[in-house]
Amino acid sequence: MVVCVVSSSKDTARSLSTIFSFVGEKVEQLSLETLEHKLELTPQLPLVVVLDDVAAQPGLLKHFPGTPFILTERAEQKLREYSNCIGVLSEAPTYGAVIQLLHFAQEYHAQKPDQQKTVHAAQLNQLTQTLVGQSAAMRSVREQVVQVAPSNANVLILGESGTGKEVVARGIHDCSKRATGPFVPVNCGAIPAELLESELFGHEKGAFTGAVGMRKGRFELAQGGTLFLDEIGDMPLPMQVKLLRVLQEREFERVGGNKTLKADVRIVAATHQGLENLISEGKFREDLFYRLNVFPIEMPALRQRDGDIPLLVNELVRRMHDYEGESIRFTEGAMASLARQRWSGNVRELSNLVERLTITHAGRVVDVADLPGKYRDESVEPYTPVYPDEMHERDALNAMFAEDEAELDNVLYEENGGFIPASLPKEGVDLRALLGDLEVELIRQALEQQEWVVARAAEQLGMRRTTLVEKMRKYQLTRSDA
C-alpha cells in the first residue's frame, strides 16, 4: 500500500512523509491536481491519501469512494462526514495512532464489498475444481483454505490416508501470495532417518561419505513458495528438534556447512496420525506440535461426505478421459451401490476403482453387476437379456464355421454325406453333415484351382493360411487325393 501525502505546505508534506516512512510505508508527495489525475486513471490502486490541503473540496472524497482518506486537523471539517474518511491525524501523532490509521486503511481496501466478494468467489470456484464436493464438510474445508491462504501461518492438515491432504496443501499454495513460487512436497515417512536432514536442509561437498558435491535441500528449493511436510508424525525425534529451530529462527545451515541461510518458506504439514497421542507416548514434541498447529484443517473421510460420490466419480472419469482418452458412464444403480460403501481407502480407493473400470469397461456403461464384488450391491439382480430362438440357431451355425479349432472339434461330420439338394426333402436332412461336406468340397476346389498353393487358396476362401492348413489336416486333404 502506498501513502499519498497531499499538502499545500512543503514543510508539512515533508514532515508527514517522514512520519509514514518511519513506520515502513512507501510514501509519495503529490499535488491535489496530480492526485485527482492518478485516481481517475487507476481508482482501484491500493493507496491511502493523507490530506492536508485546505483547498480540497468535499467532492474529492465523494468522487473516489473506493479510496480511504486520512485527514489532518487543517483539512476542512465537512470532509470528515464522508465514510471513506477513516480518521484524523493530530499535529503530533503517536506511533500507535499512525499504525492504527494504517490498519484502518488496509481493512478499508481488504473489505471492499465488491472486491472481497469477487476475490473470495474466484478462489472458491478455483478450489471446487480440485477439492470436489458439495457436502457441508467439503464446503467448510474450502472456506478454511480461502481464509488461511493469504497469510503465512503454518497449517496442519489432519485426516485419514487417501482423503486428499496434499490437494488441500496445493490449494492453500495456489490461493496464497506465494502461488508463483515453488510448491515442494516431502514425505517424511518415505525418507530414511539418516537421510532426512540432508533431504530437508541440503549438504556441502564432503559432508559425509558419498557427498561428492553440494546439494540444495527442500527448504532452499521452496524459497519464496510452500514446503509441504507430509506424514509429519513419522519424523524422527532428533529431526523434530532441528525442524523446530528452523520454524522459530527462520534460518538453517546445510549439513557440513557453517553458512546460515534464510528460510523464506510457508510450512504446511499433514498427518493421518493423532499427534496428541504421539505426544503422550513421547514420540512427538509438544512444542513442535504447537508450532505447526497454528491453523488446523481436518479433512473428512469419504464416508462422511454425503452426496459427494457422484461428483467425485464424474470428476475422476473426466480426468481419466483427459489422461487416457477413454471414458465410462455409470448407471444410477451402480452409483447408488458405490455411495453405500465404507471406503476405507477414501478418495484414493475410489480413484483406483474408476481407473480399473476405465480399463475393463472402456467406452461402456457400468452397471451394478459390472462392479467388482467388494463394491457390488448383491440385492440388485443383474440384467439378463432374452434373445429370439432364431438368434440362437444362427449362433449355432456360426459356431460350425468358427476358426477356433476347439469349436470345430465339437462338430462331427459324416463322410460321403452327399451333395446339397435343390430343395429340402420331406424326410429332412442332416444339416451338419451337409454343411461339412460343402466345406470340404469348396476347400478342395479352391486348392485345385490354385494348383494346391495353400496361401492362394486361403486367400480365395477368405481365411488365414494357418486356418486352411488346420482344416486340411482335419479333413485329411492332400494333393495325392486329387
TrEMBL record:
<dbReference type="InterPro" id="IPR025662">
    <property type="entry name" value="Sigma_54_int_dom_ATP-bd_1"/>
</dbReference>
<keyword id="KW-0547">Nucleotide-binding</keyword>
<keyword id="KW-0238">DNA-binding</keyword>
<dbReference type="InterPro" id="IPR002197">
    <property type="entry name" value="HTH_Fis"/>
</dbReference>
<dbReference type="InterPro" id="IPR003593">
    <property type="entry name" value="AAA+_ATPase"/>
</dbReference>
<keyword id="KW-0804">Transcription</keyword>
<dbReference type="InterPro" id="IPR027417">
    <property type="entry name" value="P-loop_NTPase"/>
</dbReference>
<dbReference type="GO" id="GO:0043565">
    <property type="term" value="F:sequence-specific DNA binding"/>
</dbReference>
<keyword id="KW-0067">ATP-binding</keyword>
<dbReference type="Pfam" id="PF06490">
    <property type="entry name" value="FleQ"/>
</dbReference>
<dbReference type="InterPro" id="IPR010518">
    <property type="entry name" value="FleQ"/>
</dbReference>
<dbReference type="InterPro" id="IPR025943">
    <property type="entry name" value="Sigma_54_int_dom_ATP-bd_2"/>
</dbReference>
<dbReference type="GO" id="GO:0006355">
    <property type="term" value="P:regulation of DNA-templated transcription"/>
</dbReference>
<keyword id="KW-0805">Transcription regulation</keyword>
<dbReference type="Pfam" id="PF25601">
    <property type="entry name" value="AAA_lid_14"/>
</dbReference>
<protein>
    <submittedName>
        <fullName>Sigma-54-dependent Fis family transcriptional regulator</fullName>
    </submittedName>
</protein>
<dbReference type="InterPro" id="IPR009057">
    <property type="entry name" value="Homeodomain-like_sf"/>
</dbReference>
<dbReference type="Pfam" id="PF02954">
    <property type="entry name" value="HTH_8"/>
</dbReference>
<dbReference type="InterPro" id="IPR002078">
    <property type="entry name" value="Sigma_54_int"/>
</dbReference>
<feature type="domain" description="Sigma-54 factor interaction">
    <location>
        <begin position="131"/>
        <end position="359"/>
    </location>
</feature>
<dbReference type="GO" id="GO:0005524">
    <property type="term" value="F:ATP binding"/>
</dbReference>
<dbReference type="InterPro" id="IPR058031">
    <property type="entry name" value="AAA_lid_NorR"/>
</dbReference>
<dbReference type="Pfam" id="PF00158">
    <property type="entry name" value="Sigma54_activat"/>
</dbReference>
